[in-house]
Protein backbone atom coordinates (compact mmCIF):
# COMPACT_ATOMS: atom_id res chain seq x y z
CA UNK A 1 0.00 0.00 0.00
CA UNK A 2 1.10 3.55 -0.70
CA UNK A 3 0.51 6.30 1.83
CA UNK A 4 0.14 9.70 0.16
CA UNK A 5 0.17 13.08 1.90
CA UNK A 6 -2.77 15.31 1.04
CA UNK A 7 -1.66 18.63 -0.45
CA UNK A 8 -3.29 21.40 -2.44
CA UNK A 9 -1.65 19.95 -5.55
CA UNK A 10 -3.22 16.56 -4.81
CA UNK A 11 -6.63 18.18 -4.43
CA UNK A 12 -6.23 19.98 -7.74
CA UNK A 13 -5.09 16.79 -9.44
CA UNK A 14 -8.11 14.86 -8.15
CA UNK A 15 -10.37 17.69 -9.34
CA UNK A 16 -8.80 17.48 -12.79
CA UNK A 17 -9.43 13.72 -12.83
CA UNK A 18 -13.09 14.22 -11.79
CA UNK A 19 -12.58 12.13 -8.65
CA UNK A 20 -14.77 13.66 -5.96
CA UNK A 21 -14.54 13.62 -2.16
CA UNK A 22 -18.14 14.45 -1.27
CA UNK A 23 -21.55 13.79 -2.70
CA UNK A 24 -23.32 16.94 -3.91
CA UNK A 25 -26.45 17.81 -5.87
CA UNK A 26 -28.70 15.57 -3.79
CA UNK A 27 -32.29 16.43 -2.80
CA UNK A 28 -32.70 18.71 -5.78
CA UNK A 29 -29.81 21.01 -4.90
CA UNK A 30 -27.43 21.92 -7.73
CA UNK A 31 -23.80 20.87 -7.42
CA UNK A 32 -21.42 23.73 -6.60
CA UNK A 33 -19.05 25.07 -9.22
CA UNK A 34 -16.14 24.34 -6.89
CA UNK A 35 -16.35 20.79 -5.58
CA UNK A 36 -15.87 20.43 -1.80
CA UNK A 37 -12.72 18.84 -0.41
CA UNK A 38 -13.06 16.42 2.47
CA UNK A 39 -9.45 15.39 3.06
CA UNK A 40 -7.40 17.92 5.01
CA UNK A 41 -3.98 19.02 3.84
CA UNK A 42 -1.28 17.25 5.83
CA UNK A 43 -3.25 14.07 6.46
CA UNK A 44 -2.49 10.85 4.59
CA UNK A 45 -4.62 8.69 2.32
CA UNK A 46 -3.91 5.08 1.39
CA UNK A 47 -3.95 3.83 -2.20
CA UNK A 48 -3.13 0.38 -3.53
CA UNK A 49 -0.36 0.85 -6.13
CA UNK A 50 -2.27 -0.98 -8.87
CA UNK A 51 -5.73 0.46 -8.15
CA UNK A 52 -7.53 2.15 -11.02
CA UNK A 53 -10.03 4.90 -10.21
CA UNK A 54 -12.01 6.05 -13.21
CA UNK A 55 -13.25 9.63 -13.68
CA UNK A 56 -16.68 10.72 -12.44
CA UNK A 57 -16.46 8.71 -9.22
CA UNK A 58 -17.02 9.77 -5.61
CA UNK A 59 -15.18 8.60 -2.47
CA UNK A 60 -17.34 10.30 0.16
CA UNK A 61 -15.97 8.65 3.32
CA UNK A 62 -12.74 7.21 4.71
CA UNK A 63 -9.05 7.81 4.06
CA UNK A 64 -8.44 4.69 1.95
CA UNK A 65 -9.08 4.71 -1.79
CA UNK A 66 -10.57 1.55 -3.31
CA UNK A 67 -10.53 0.80 -7.02
CA UNK A 68 -13.64 2.34 -8.60
CA UNK A 69 -15.38 2.61 -11.93
CA UNK A 70 -17.04 5.70 -13.37
CA UNK A 71 -20.31 6.96 -11.88
CA UNK A 72 -19.79 4.97 -8.68
CA UNK A 73 -20.46 6.71 -5.37
CA UNK A 74 -19.28 5.24 -2.06
CA UNK A 75 -20.54 6.92 1.13
CA UNK A 76 -18.85 4.56 3.61
CA UNK A 77 -15.20 3.92 4.40
CA UNK A 78 -13.94 0.88 2.48
CA UNK A 79 -10.43 -0.61 2.59
CA UNK A 80 -8.06 0.17 -0.27
CA UNK A 81 -8.14 -3.53 -1.21
CA UNK A 82 -11.81 -3.30 -2.26
CA UNK A 83 -12.86 -2.83 -5.87
CA UNK A 84 -16.07 -1.50 -7.42
CA UNK A 85 -17.34 -1.56 -10.97
CA UNK A 86 -19.19 1.28 -12.66
CA UNK A 87 -22.54 2.80 -11.65
CA UNK A 88 -22.47 1.49 -8.06
CA UNK A 89 -24.43 3.21 -5.27
CA UNK A 90 -23.07 2.52 -1.78
CA UNK A 91 -24.81 3.97 1.27
CA UNK A 92 -23.60 5.26 4.62
CA UNK A 93 -22.64 3.43 7.83
CA UNK A 94 -21.57 0.21 6.15
CA UNK A 95 -19.31 -1.89 8.39
CA UNK A 96 -17.32 -5.08 8.09
CA UNK A 97 -17.10 -8.35 9.99
CA UNK A 98 -14.50 -7.83 12.72
CA UNK A 99 -11.68 -9.93 14.12
CA UNK A 100 -12.31 -13.68 14.00
CA UNK A 101 -11.43 -15.52 17.21
CA UNK A 102 -10.29 -19.16 16.70
CA UNK A 103 -13.51 -21.12 17.25
CA UNK A 104 -11.72 -24.32 16.17
CA UNK A 105 -9.24 -24.04 19.09
CA UNK A 106 -9.84 -25.22 22.66
CA UNK A 107 -10.23 -21.59 23.73
CA UNK A 108 -11.13 -18.46 21.77
CA UNK A 109 -9.44 -16.13 24.31
CA UNK A 110 -6.80 -13.76 22.99
CA UNK A 111 -4.65 -14.58 26.03
CA UNK A 112 -3.46 -17.63 24.08
CA UNK A 113 -2.29 -15.75 20.98
CA UNK A 114 -1.77 -12.06 21.81
CA UNK A 115 0.76 -11.37 24.57
CA UNK A 116 0.58 -7.59 24.06
CA UNK A 117 -2.93 -7.44 25.51
CA UNK A 118 -3.26 -5.43 28.72
CA UNK A 119 -4.35 -8.34 30.90
CA UNK A 120 -1.57 -10.61 29.65
CA UNK A 121 1.18 -8.02 30.12
CA UNK A 122 -0.12 -7.22 33.63
CA UNK A 123 -0.23 -10.92 34.53
CA UNK A 124 3.26 -11.52 33.11
CA UNK A 125 4.63 -8.53 35.02
CA UNK A 126 3.11 -9.72 38.29
CA UNK A 127 4.38 -13.29 37.86
CA UNK A 128 7.85 -12.02 36.99
CA UNK A 129 7.87 -9.92 40.17
CA UNK A 130 6.77 -12.90 42.26
CA UNK A 131 8.85 -15.69 40.71
CA UNK A 132 11.54 -14.03 38.62
CA UNK A 133 10.19 -15.76 35.53
CA UNK A 134 8.09 -13.97 32.93
CA UNK A 135 5.43 -16.11 31.19
CA UNK A 136 5.39 -15.98 27.41
CA UNK A 137 3.22 -17.34 24.62
CA UNK A 138 5.67 -19.75 23.01
CA UNK A 139 3.15 -21.51 20.78
CA UNK A 140 0.37 -19.03 19.93
CA UNK A 141 -2.96 -20.39 18.77
CA UNK A 142 -3.37 -19.70 15.01
CA UNK A 143 -5.91 -17.01 14.17
CA UNK A 144 -6.78 -17.22 10.45
CA UNK A 145 -8.70 -14.18 9.20
CA UNK A 146 -10.45 -15.15 5.95
CA UNK A 147 -12.94 -12.31 6.44
CA UNK A 148 -10.19 -9.79 5.73
CA UNK A 149 -9.89 -10.74 2.07
CA UNK A 150 -10.50 -8.21 -0.69
CA UNK A 151 -14.10 -7.27 -1.49
CA UNK A 152 -14.96 -7.52 -5.19
CA UNK A 153 -18.07 -5.60 -6.18
CA UNK A 154 -19.38 -5.66 -9.73
CA UNK A 155 -21.14 -3.04 -11.85
CA UNK A 156 -24.43 -1.34 -10.95
CA UNK A 157 -24.51 -2.72 -7.38
CA UNK A 158 -26.59 -0.98 -4.72
CA UNK A 159 -25.57 -1.50 -1.06
CA UNK A 160 -28.01 0.00 1.43
CA UNK A 161 -27.24 1.95 4.59
CA UNK A 162 -25.95 0.01 7.57
CA UNK A 163 -25.17 -3.22 5.77
CA UNK A 164 -22.49 -5.46 7.29
CA UNK A 165 -20.13 -7.18 4.86
CA UNK A 166 -17.58 -9.95 5.21
CA UNK A 167 -14.30 -9.37 3.43
CA UNK A 168 -13.24 -11.77 0.71
CA UNK A 169 -16.68 -12.03 -0.91
CA UNK A 170 -17.83 -11.09 -4.40
CA UNK A 171 -21.03 -9.18 -5.13
CA UNK A 172 -22.16 -9.69 -8.70
CA UNK A 173 -23.29 -7.16 -11.30
CA UNK A 174 -26.69 -5.64 -10.63
CA UNK A 175 -27.01 -7.10 -7.12
CA UNK A 176 -28.81 -5.28 -4.30
CA UNK A 177 -27.87 -5.51 -0.60
CA UNK A 178 -30.69 -4.10 1.50
CA UNK A 179 -30.06 -1.74 4.40
CA UNK A 180 -28.88 -3.52 7.54
CA UNK A 181 -28.27 -6.85 5.80
CA UNK A 182 -25.42 -9.03 7.10
CA UNK A 183 -23.71 -10.59 4.09
CA UNK A 184 -21.05 -13.27 4.59
CA UNK A 185 -21.23 -15.15 1.28
CA UNK A 186 -20.89 -14.33 -2.40
CA UNK A 187 -23.92 -12.67 -3.98
CA UNK A 188 -24.97 -13.71 -7.48
CA UNK A 189 -25.62 -11.09 -10.18
CA UNK A 190 -29.01 -9.36 -10.08
CA UNK A 191 -29.86 -10.93 -6.71
CA UNK A 192 -31.49 -9.02 -3.85
CA UNK A 193 -30.11 -10.06 -0.44
CA UNK A 194 -31.43 -8.86 2.92
CA UNK A 195 -31.76 -9.74 6.58
CA UNK A 196 -29.52 -11.11 9.33
CA UNK A 197 -28.18 -13.51 8.34
CA UNK A 198 -28.34 -12.36 4.75
CA UNK A 199 -30.59 -14.44 2.55
CA UNK A 200 -31.75 -14.25 -1.04
CA UNK A 201 -35.05 -12.39 -1.25
CA UNK A 202 -35.44 -12.69 -5.01
CA UNK A 203 -33.77 -11.94 -8.30
CA UNK A 204 -34.47 -8.51 -9.70
CA UNK A 205 -35.77 -9.72 -13.06
CA UNK A 206 -36.59 -12.99 -14.86
CA UNK A 207 -33.53 -15.16 -15.46
CA UNK A 208 -33.38 -14.44 -19.19
CA UNK A 209 -33.47 -10.66 -18.61
CA UNK A 210 -30.70 -10.87 -16.00
CA UNK A 211 -28.56 -12.87 -18.43
CA UNK A 212 -29.28 -10.44 -21.27
CA UNK A 213 -28.36 -7.42 -19.14
CA UNK A 214 -25.03 -8.99 -18.22
CA UNK A 215 -24.35 -10.00 -21.81
CA UNK A 216 -25.12 -6.47 -23.02
CA UNK A 217 -22.45 -4.99 -20.72
CA UNK A 218 -24.45 -1.79 -20.85
CA UNK A 219 -22.13 -0.13 -18.29
CA UNK A 220 -19.47 0.06 -21.01
CA UNK A 221 -21.70 2.29 -23.15
CA UNK A 222 -20.97 6.02 -23.02
CA UNK A 223 -23.31 7.85 -20.66
CA UNK A 224 -24.40 10.20 -23.43
CA UNK A 225 -25.73 7.19 -25.35
CA UNK A 226 -27.23 5.56 -22.24
CA UNK A 227 -29.28 8.70 -21.61
CA UNK A 228 -31.01 8.09 -24.94
CA UNK A 229 -31.86 4.47 -24.12
CA UNK A 230 -34.89 3.15 -22.15
CA UNK A 231 -33.09 2.66 -18.83
CA UNK A 232 -36.38 2.31 -16.91
CA UNK A 233 -37.32 -0.87 -18.81
CA UNK A 234 -34.73 -3.70 -18.65
CA UNK A 235 -36.21 -5.71 -21.53
CA UNK A 236 -36.55 -2.67 -23.77
CA UNK A 237 -32.97 -1.70 -22.90
CA UNK A 238 -31.42 -5.00 -23.97
CA UNK A 239 -33.50 -4.96 -27.17
CA UNK A 240 -32.40 -1.40 -27.96
CA UNK A 241 -28.75 -2.28 -27.39
CA UNK A 242 -29.08 -5.33 -29.65
CA UNK A 243 -30.74 -3.28 -32.39
CA UNK A 244 -28.32 -0.35 -32.31
CA UNK A 245 -25.20 -2.49 -31.92
CA UNK A 246 -22.16 -0.71 -33.30
CA UNK A 247 -23.91 2.68 -33.26
CA UNK A 248 -23.33 2.84 -29.51
CA UNK A 249 -20.01 4.17 -28.22
CA UNK A 250 -18.25 1.86 -25.78
CA UNK A 251 -15.88 3.28 -23.15
CA UNK A 252 -12.97 0.93 -22.51
CA UNK A 253 -11.92 0.43 -18.87
CA UNK A 254 -9.18 2.77 -17.72
CA UNK A 255 -5.87 0.92 -17.38
CA UNK A 256 -3.61 3.50 -15.71
CA UNK A 257 -3.38 3.19 -11.89
CA UNK A 258 -4.39 6.25 -9.90
CA UNK A 259 -0.95 6.54 -8.31
CA UNK A 260 0.62 6.99 -11.72
CA UNK A 261 -1.95 9.61 -12.71
CA UNK A 262 -1.33 11.56 -9.51
CA UNK A 263 2.35 11.88 -10.40
CA UNK A 264 1.63 13.54 -13.73
CA UNK A 265 1.60 17.34 -14.02
CA UNK A 266 -1.74 19.10 -13.73
From TrEMBL:
Pfam families assigned: Hexapep
Q: Which family does it belong to?
A: Belongs to the transferase hexapeptide repeat family.
Q: From the Swiss-Prot or TrEMBL record, give the protein name.
A: Uncharacterized protein
Q: Which organism is it from?
A: Primorskyibacter flagellatus
Amino acid sequence: MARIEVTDALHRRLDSLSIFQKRTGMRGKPSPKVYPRRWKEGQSIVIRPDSVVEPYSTIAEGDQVPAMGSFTEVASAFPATASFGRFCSVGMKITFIGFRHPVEAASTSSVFFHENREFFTAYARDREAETGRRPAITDPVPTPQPQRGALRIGHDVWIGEGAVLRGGISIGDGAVITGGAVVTKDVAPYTIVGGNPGRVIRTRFPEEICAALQASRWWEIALEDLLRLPMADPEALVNAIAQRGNDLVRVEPLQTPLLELLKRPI
